Task: structure prediction
Amino acid sequence: MSIGNETLVRIEDLVMHFPIYQGVIHRQVGAVRAVDGVSFEIQQGETLGLVGESGCGKTTTGRTILQLYKPTSGHVYFKDKDLTQLKPEEMRKERKDIQMIFQDPYASLNPRMTLHDIVAEPLIAFGAKKGKAVNERVAELLKLVRLDPNFSSRYPHEFSGGQRQRIGIARSLALNPSFIVCDEPISALDVSIQAQIVNLLEDLQEELNLTYLFIAHDLSMVRHISDRVAVMYLGIIVELADRYEIYNNPLHPYTQALLSSIPVAEPEYYETHQRIVLEGNVPSPANPPSGCRFRTRCPIAENFCSEEQPQLVEVRPGHFAACLKIDKQISEKEVSIQNKG
Result:
């Protein structure tokens, strides 16, 4: 992977709240705070992994970045252009450069369209190709994702899950995008097929200079494909760092618990490593806890954790974490150094 110094995507205080209505007059009584102040950057040619439990807001973050959901507030900069401020027609022009690979390869393909029509649809809709050029481009895309162009007259139900996901990838590449949101592209596939799809995505990234936001549950797979990893909990980012740093030196208690749940095929490992089992359930995003959102399940939480919401701060070079106890430890260390000086 060739990562450039140029920031391709920049997210600033992204918020996506879904209103809750009640009663005959359809009065708003609250909101589901799916994404609640998320900020990060993605460099050109980089893969940023986004991990967390189900319902933490990963998919909503990806869809809001692509403006499939209009954010409640915040900014999404793509090549320094704020997508949240664009008019519908202006946003349509940008969609050629930003695409999405959906999670479910069975639901994301129109069962009434042939393989050729599915892949050709964006080419025709945007007027990118006409006539024979469409057929040539479709054949080229199918070869790119390791599918036989002779299958182009078949329908989605005639393909396996892995083949369908390859069709979805081919469709996302049709207009030569530079940024792709991969929304759990392997979670619905057999384990034997998952590695093939991940290897394909890596090959395509190298060949086409693509930039990915890779959303997933599988922490070991995220470690394999990502350059950096962001950990999300209940609508916020709690830790962000280089993949080696975050897997070898996790700082946030939630990240530590997630990593301890990864199965390791070495019995000796469990003699020196204890699994962290989180108690209770993830709180409702419609009514998150005060202060630190993880405090209700955190094994090291203290009283002051309920008083203030921690901010994502740079604890080490390139390593960010949102934990009041870490902030307190750093402050105490700084005071100690000053006193010694």
